[in-house]
Design goal:
By secondary structure, the chain is an alpha+beta fold. 45% of the residues lie in helices and 20% in strands. Strand 10 and strand 11 form a beta hairpin. The longest helix is centred in the C-terminal third of the chain and has 26 residues, at 386-411.
Length: 481
């Protein structure tokens, strides 16, 4: 037989040596049309008797289950893309065999065809929630679950779902991983989605799947479930989905969402109990871009940092459950909690320190030179547009009383099912006030139009100045080089 094969010659030797399918195979109609079908569609035509899982011994299945269960630890909760790294060798001590990525990946794919993977996710979450709960003696007011996502680009000419890959600055084929940690920074699970993993739909359904396990760690079976996300998940449609599912959320607004006209019922500032800032409670009205007529109202907390920066957090947690300081602390505990494992490892091996040297603060001449360039650029444009800026300043002064009147009128209205409700006189007065605001804004736009390029440059320089104006020195090791 071997002699006959040698006489036949090599069949696509360049491809066979790499262990790949040929281009002709991928062009087959039966392969091409079903390549990206859902699992539900593929199951109908799948020969389940060919699955390797069905021929495996019980001992082997248990070993692989244990390997999958340990993935949040072995992969640093998703920061590594596979288990073929050095830390993956720990599988030999955990489950008795040093499995590689391809083996576990194939095992999980076969579980999908057997429709077991969703139950496996629930069981994995149940295990980690119970495991970490036994080690934590604290009983926080909120059961916080920190959600974050990481987008992995896929360099392929084949058709795949596309989304924004921030680290590359482009929209392309990608997979998105969603990580979930509990209140103490312990990993619960992570899952990968094709394209964009919308937290309002996919990740929310996963949290609902493990709802029974979340309640199980509460002594009375009642729990305040809070999903804490970064500003990448602050879309109004996402927040609406979370609120409608009877979950609480905490997130931050982007800079372009912090328009003072959206705030009402602004309370006096109080000191932040856990940091250098003042907090102001308010109500925030957000417009859903997918439904422009829908108004989403939620609780807002304005954070005025002592360093001069302002941040706005939004939540649907009532003040009866937790005050403003507690909300802000819960959010900013997110990063140390999600990076708890890696932070502990850095501390153990001291890789975050410069060993053998002292540290000192020295002037950063490059940054100071850049600051001077930006400042001169701002001054130059402001001098060239002095007359126009003076006129705009006059219009801004005209807007102040209208903004105040608009806020007072909004505070007398209520938002019900996304619609503003009030008596006819109040709604009429609000509409008149907003027309005056729009009239003045049109006048400002008319002044800006002939100098659009210069104002655009001025805006970019001012934005850059906000980032660099406090930077003028750096920390350097005390070496002589």
């Amino acid at each position: 037989m071997f002699e006959e094969n040698r006489q036949l010659g090599a069949d696509h030797s360049s491809e066979r040596n790499k262990g790949r399918f040929t281009a002709d195979y991928n062009k087959l109609n039966g392969v091409r049309t079903t390549k990206f079908d859902s699992i539900e569609e593929k199951i109908r035509h799948k020969d389940l008797s060919r699955l390797q899982l069905l021929d495996a011994q019980t001992k082997t299945i248990l070993r692989k289950n244990l390997a999958v269960l340990s993935l949040p630890l072995i992969t640093l909760n998703g920061s590594m893309r596979d288990i073929n790294k050095s830390i993956g060798n720990a599988l030999k001590q955990i489950c008795g065999y040093n499995y590689k990525h391809a083996t576990i990946d194939k095992y999980l794919r076969e579980l999908k065809y057997l429709r077991i993977s969703s139950n496996f996710i629930k069981a994995t979450a149940d295990f980690w929630i119970t495991f970490w709960a036994e080690l934590n003696n604290e009983h926080p007011t909120l059961l916080c679950y920190y959600l974050d996502g990481n987008t992995k680009p896929i360099w392929s000419s084949k058709s795949c779902k596309k989304s924004k890959v921030t680290m590359l600055g482009r929209v392309m084929n990608c997979l998105e991983q969603v990580f979930v940690h509990d209140s103490f920074g312990n990993p619960t699970y992570f899952q990968t989605y094709s394209g964009n993993a919308d937290l309002g739909t996919k990740a929310l359904s996963l949290m609902e799947d493990i709802e029974d396990y979340l309640k199980a760690i509460s002594s009375d079976g009642k729990v305040n479930r809070v999903m804490i996300m970064d500003s990448a998940a602050n879309g109004v449609s996402t927040l609406r989905s979370i609120a409608n599912a009877n979950y609480y959320f905490i997130t931050l607004l982007n800079e372009n969402q912090t328009n003072p006209r959206k705030f009402k019922h602004i309370q006096p500032l109080v000191r932040y109990e856990h940091g250098a800032a003042d907090l102001g409670e308010c109500a925030v009205e957000l417009i859903d871009s997918k439904e422009p007529d829908y108004i989403f109202e939620c609780r807002g907390i304005i954070i005025n940092w002592d360093k001069g920066k302002q941040t706005v957090a939004v939540t649907n947690l009532p003040t009866q459950i937790i005050d403003g300081s507690g909300v802000i602390k819960s959010y900013f505990d997110r990063w140390p909690s999600q990076e708890l494992q890696f932070r502990s490892m850095k501390s153990a091996v001291s890789i975050h320190r410069v060993m053998g040297y002292g540290k000192k603060k020295i002037p950063d001449e490059n940054m100071r030179e850049k600051q001077e360039q930006v400042r001169k650029g701002i001054d130059k444009i402001c001098s060239e547009l002095k007359d126009v800026l003076d006129e705009i300043g006059g219009f801004d002064q005209e807007l102040v009383p209208f903004y105040k009147e608009e806020r007072l009128l909004k505070e007398t209205t209520i938002i019900k099912d996304g619609k503003r409700e009030a008596d006819a006189d109040t709604l009429s007065a609000l509409e008149t006030c907003q027309k005056e605001i729009n009239r003045i804004k049109r006048s400002i736009s008319k002044l800006l139009k002939p100098h659009k390029a210069k104002f655009g440059k001025l805006q970019r320089l001012r934005k850059e100045w906000k980032l660099i104006h406090r930077k003028g020195s750096c920390i350097c090791c005390g070496c002589r080089t």
